[in-house]
Amino acid sequence: MRKKDLAAMINVESSLQDIMQMLSPQEQEELKDGMSIQHFKKNETLYQEGEVPQMFHCLISGKVKIYKDGIGGRTQIVRVIKPVEYFGYRAYFANQNYVTSAAAFESSTVCLIPIEMMERWIMENRQLALFFIRQLAIEVGNSDQRTVNLTQKHIRGRLAESLLFLRDSYGLEEDGATLSIYLSREDLANMSNMTTSNAIRTLSAFAQEKIIAIDGKKIKLIDEECLERINKIG
Fold it and tell me: pTM for the complete prediction?
């Protein structure tokens, strides 16, 4: 194994410690043998709506969006994935094909685990089963809350929520203010359930009000308290 591949595998094994510690030594070795590491370029698709789920996905590095294409070609980003999170398995346990698609926001490294192997362990391991039940429960709760917010809030409230959501999900750069993810205006609009033109206008308004500063795709949060207020009042 090349040094680069060995380093990548060690990094993956470290990232998977949350489930590795629930497995027997034999199962840990089976996991190491069965999993694979895949690198995705920016905007590259991981899986598409309608496909048959075959793998558990664990994001090791990078950023991934879960999205659904709607009526008239409109796209809605329904969730964002950050390291180290598992995704792409709900449809399998629901006995469905994928109802959403996944793509990389930026260059990303993903660990793929055969889903049938994971299912066998989940059937035999209560601790592992509870771990993924909790993961799904958290996702459902977050999804329910976000659905309400995106349908009831005004445009300013929706955009403020998305900016704060990105802050909480991916953090800030070393300056403590700039979002550490650079989204296109279209992606930001797709997260906020609005048109791209509305996203651009609202961002410009926030910038004029000194709530944020914009430098290309970089967004700097100047007045987070104001964003919190806008988010709260909707």
Answer: 0.83
